[in-house]
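Chain X:
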Amino acid sequence: EAPVSVDDCIARFGTETVMVAADENYVVSGSCVYVVDTLEGSFYVGETDDVVERIRRHRKRWPACTFRVLRIPNKSCARNVETMLQRCMKASGLSLASDTDAHHIHF
């Protein structure tokens, strides 16, 4: 049975997830995958080694957005998780602001 929510998709990776509200800051180092809830009916999934900067930049586009941040062991794993999470969310019928990276096959 296909997952039906963002959290169902994230749970498949068995990693700690931190929620970051629109008025909060979050500091972490290392590779992360993050999910932006745009609050406009779509989600954006990305990976980064500088989540603080990515949150800052996404908040310029979606000021009230919230984030789910997953800490990932390394960049290669983060790219893989990003792709798999986008695929899971898309298969579950969730609207993605961009699914370009869902087509990656080499990490």
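Chain Y:
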Amino acid sequence: ITPIRNAFGRMGLPAPDFGLIPQVKPALQAIDVDDSGRLWVRATTNDTTRTVFDVWDGSTGKQLAMVTAPWRIGSAWRPLIRGDTMHTVVLNENDVPVVVRAVIRK
């Protein structure tokens, strides 16, 4: 919190009201739909090195798979999944956004 207060102070802004930040994170970070109607669900985690998806059949509700991507997708970025290919933006080791294309293997 101190670095944030200092940064706001350097910019001449009042410190944010940290009381407005929830103490508990939501269970789900995002739900995305691919071109086959499958739901790709991202749970909220503290893992900064990878992203885990639970993949569900959109019509039956049956869980199909758990897919682990070897990079962290920022919460604001949404993957585009078509067939066996995912396009998304990931954050590199310096938190710089980078576009990636990945083939999904079964």
